[in-house]
Amino acid sequence: MTPAPIAVALDAPDLETAARWAALVTPHVSTVKVGLELYLRYGPDVIASVRGASGVRVFLDLKLHDIPNTVAGAARAVARLRPSILTVHAAGGPAMIRAAVAAAPHTQIAAVTVLTSLTEGDLERIGLTGPADSAVRRLAALSVESGATALVCSPNEVSAVRAEVGEEITLITPGVRPTGAATQDQMRVATPEQALADGADLLVIGRPITGSPDPGAAAAAIAASLRRAT
Ligand SMILES: O=c1ccn([C@@H]2O[C@H](COP(=O)(O)O)[C@@H](O)[C@H]2O)c(=O)[nH]1
């Protein structure tokens, strides 16, 4: 069976837990995601630990955001680990995104538009007035013009972003919650089925899977429900 288009966020406190979660979910999902918590604690070794024998795709979610020269150096440093996807913040601007793309030619650079934990009230306080999808569309267009071939947005904006950037760009959506699951700190959310129906290519799902007593079964259940919906 083809693994589901899900990236499981391995936001674990230790390497053993992350590797265990990765081994349990990899029969069911296409990708595992390493974020700041794990990478800052364990560094590059974490990639091999979660990739394991299965060779599952690893998404390195470091959300780089700095001047172009610094981001180029950081992207070059992690490119040797061959992550499938590396994130940068779209708000870092065109030159920074171009620098990341040039520094990691074998890794897909995904630009994070507006964090899924932010409400429209938060955006207004930051100075981004108007509906969230206007800011997301603007940042998406800028990122693609700068060479990003993937974008991170909430499932609520995925159809607007698809209309803006076309079919060739990979749309990645965190803020995904199965019906009835707690939203926790995610503010702009939708179900896995809705995100996929609206045009997402890869669903990032963490705690609804890793917080389950059986992460393998939780991943398998979401994968099966996506298969039924398509
Ligand atoms: O806008 C964003 C960008 C990245 N994330 C990351 O996705 C996961 C979501 O985990 P859940 O447990 O499913 O909430 C997490 O690693 C974030 O760093 C995001 O949530 N929103």
TrEMBL record:
Binding of substrate, residues: 11, 33, 61-70, 116, 177, 186, 206-207
InterPro entries xrefs: Aldolase_TIM, OMPdecase, OMPdecase_AS, OMPdecase_bac, OMPdeCOase_dom, RibuloseP-bd_barrel
Domain of life assignment: Bacteria
Key words, A-Z: Decarboxylase, Lyase, Pyrimidine biosynthesis
Chain segments annotated as transmembrane: none
Pathway per the UniProt entry: Pyrimidine metabolism; UMP biosynthesis via de novo pathway; UMP from orotate: step 2/2
Reaction equations catalysed: orotidine 5'-phosphate + H(+) = UMP + CO2
Domain Orotidine 5'-phosphate decarboxylase residue range list: 5-222
EC number: 4.1.1.23
HAMAP family linked to this entry: OMPdecase_type1_B (MF_01200_B)
UniProt function note: Catalyzes the decarboxylation of orotidine 5'-monophosphate (OMP) to uridine 5'-monophosphate (UMP).
Protein name as catalogued: Orotidine 5'-phosphate decarboxylase
Organism: Nonomuraea rubra
Lineage of origin: Bacteria, Bacillati, Actinomycetota, Actinomycetes, Streptosporangiales
Primary gene name: pyrF
